[in-house]
Amino acid sequence: xxxxxxxxxxxxTGESLFMVSIAALIATAFGxxxxxxxxxxxxxxxxxxxxxxxxxxxIVNATRSTPFIILVVAIIPFTRLIAGTSIGSGAAIVPLTxxxxxxxxxxxxxxxxxxxAGLIETASSFGASPLQIxxxxxxxxxxxxxxxxLTLAVVSLLGYxxxxxxxxxxxxxxxxxxxxxxxxxxxxxxxVVVVLIALxxxxxxxxxxxxxxxxxxxRHR
Amino acid sequence: xxxxQSLTAAEPVETLSPLPHPPTTADAMVRFEQVAKAYPAYRDxxxxxxxxxxxxxxxxxxxxxxxxxxxxxxxSLVRLINGLEKPSSGRVVVDGRDISGxxxxxxxxxxxxxxxxxxxxNLLSSRTAADNIALPLEIAGWSRRxxxxxxxxxxxxxxxxxxxxRYPSELSGxxxxxxxxARALATRPNVLLSDEATSALDPQTTRSILDLLAxxxxxxxxxxxxxxxxxxxxxxxxxxxxxxxxxxxxERGHVADIFTHPAHPVTQAFLSEVIGDSVPxxxxxxxxxxxxxxGHAVIRIQVRGADAGDxxxxxLARELSIDVALLSARIDEIGGQHVGSLSLGIPxxxxxxxxxxxxxxxxxxxAERLGYVA
Lengths: 221, 374
Prior knowledge:
The structure holds two protein chains of two kinds. By secondary structure, chain A is mostly helical. Chain A has helices spanning 3-40, 50-65, 68-74, 76-83, 89-113, 117-125, 130-161, 172-182, 186-214. Chain B is α/β, with parallel strands linked by helices. The interface between A and B is medium-sized, with 25 and 33 residues.
């Protein structure tokens, strides 16, 4: 493989990592609180707001059921509003974030709901406010599950990022399509797939390790 | 249901001996005033009347056991005390303050003076022993330094100072409950609520936890309210007992009085759990309905009271000049009172058995004729 092609792969990997990491950060910043709210706002729960919970649930479901490639195209005006342009890696972060946010919210909700309800009652019994319960009980107790959820989200984002080539987002997926498929360079396609596999493996292994480290339910000594 | 209602509504069961410190309004730590609690219907579940006509006081510094079967309303009762639940009507006054009328920040402040321990310990798996104990202090906004000092004291108090850096997954049930107790006491509450705190522990560990609670009551003067379905817990720890069934208080008073003279069937059932009211199998299998030549008539007496039964076998033997056989005996001590039953074998045929029964009745020990053995 020529030096030029190798450079292309390195550059595309950089673009993919840039898009995915920024999108993951922003999506987590919004998805985490939304997920916590979803997990605590049904009838009789900490922040009981059943109506808001239902509406939010519908929005989350709607976003999640929209195929990513359609989402990318459908929100182009919004992307332009936020990023100033609708093409390039920077602009691609917008649809990636929008797609990952509800996904992360649902994963966070599931992880938070795993926390024993008895712990919420316990914290309430010594006068903890709902916010204190979230920060000192729910999130720390759900941490192993949250780490795994974010790992899953990052892996999914890597997959999504392959599609943003459609709007000139660049990245590994785009490279694979343009060179590997459209220019009939199977070795390029293979290289892209191998790099993606390596990235997913790394992310998953790191996530698993971290989740085990923060899980105090397992015995360490 | 009718039995309960007539017992509670018409005439509250009085204690038999005067209380040393009658639970007057003045020194009541917890006072239930005409409390009822109903859970509204939800989806396919009908509404539930969990508690009704609850009106009693828990004396300051006492250890009060609330005993009842599953679903009797014990959990609701104890959760009304720390405001985790609100009464549907009536008031719950804790340390002179109407906790049922508080909400938001005022309620959270009041909750800091009421500790609670749980059947399943409810420790945070993500925190060490010390950090679990620190949690209520962090929530109350203590400084880091004050927390460290207080946590060290508490670890010492509950006897697990060497386990401070262990996570709950590395500790035994008894150790976990000790952390639970330390955590409940962290903010120096004056009431400690125990929700079946020993039900998940083995008998030996249960005993050590109950001893710890007794020490805490004695040394810190903390009023303890424990709910349980285990008679042995009430017997070992409590001085006052409230028996609840079907959401009503069916009986209450001193442990010794209630259990030497149980009036309600539920109380009697709980009592027989401890003292084994039934005739031992080995004896029951030998019982015959008709007299056996050269055998014994079997008479059972119930022993209730401080000195009841202590010399009765000897006196009976002397009075009737017979050799009384002791076929089975089980006597336990509850609150300093003897409670149990004796099965006696009376030789000499029907006449002797009648005389023995008459003599026992004269001594306020009604005799029950079980049958005959060879």
